[in-house]
Amino acid sequence: MKALLLAAGLGTRLRPLTDRIPKCLVPIHGKPLLAYWLDLLLPNGISEVLINTHYLPRTVEAFRDASPWRDRITLVHEPELLGTGGTILANRAFFGRQPFVVAHADNLSRFPVGEFLAAHARRSGSAAMTMLTFDTDAPATCGIVETDRDGLVVHFHEKVKNPPGNRANGAVYIIEPETVDFIASLGKQFVDLSTEVIPHFLGRIAVFHNADYHRDIGNAESLRRAEAEFA
């Protein structure tokens, strides 16, 4: 299976650190976020990785060229940001008509990738994607999910005050070609997964819970906490 690592974000809330490096290369214990993702995915069932760039792309190119995984990494540059769904659509030929992993590379995550892939393979036949979830300590800043008795997402609360719980979307997915077809049907270049795609597939999204570690490195405080927590 192939994977898309979304790495084009500006990281404005991490300035001044991100004045000189893109958010996807912010280090935790001296190791860039992208390196954690590559070391997690590529030994565990992922054959190739596509990484999109936008902000400070030469820095990401230099990282790729120095990576021990460089022969399994393809970079694609976005002169204008396309949104999470737009990037998937623009690169659909890379994945063909096969399911693939999509992950936000500005998160720090550790989970059993093989079990994630296996859970998708045995998902309900109606599910068009599998979403990784985690328990957040800041539910108002996340997309909170509610599931039915079959483990399918039936309600999704994207960054609302006082959401009903703390089980959150980890922004890691396994996506079937049907989902890409829906994105294409919207007829536009910029598409956001959280607001335009997930709501359409409610009742058809399986979940895999990450009980190990997951944190959005979105600001200086989350970066500080990751440094303290992550071993």
In short, what is this structure?
By secondary structure, this protein is of the alpha/beta class. The protein is built from 8 helices and 13 strands. 28% of the residues lie in helices and 28% in strands.
The CATH topology: Spore Coat Polysaccharide Biosynthesis Protein SpsA, Chain A
Instruction: Tell me the β content.
Output: 25-35%
Per CATH, the architecture is Alpha-Beta Complex
Q: Look at the helices and sheets and give the structural class.
A: alpha/beta
Corresponding CATH superfamily: Spore Coat Polysaccharide Biosynthesis Protein SpsA, Chain A
In spatial order, strands of the major sheet run: 5-4-1-6-11-8-12
Q: Which parts are unreliable, with pLDDT below 50 for 5 consecutive residues or more?
A: none
**Largest sheet at a glance?**
7 strands, mixed
Provide the gyration radius in Å: 17 Å
- State the helicity in percent bands: 25-40%
Number of structurally distinct domains: 1
Task: Give the termini distance in whole angstroms.
Answer: 28 Å
* CATH domain class name: Alpha Beta
Could you give the count of β-strands?
13
| Helix and strand element order | EEEHEHEHHEEHEEEEHHEEH
Average per-residue pLDDT, rounded, comes to: 93
> How large is the count of helical segments?
8
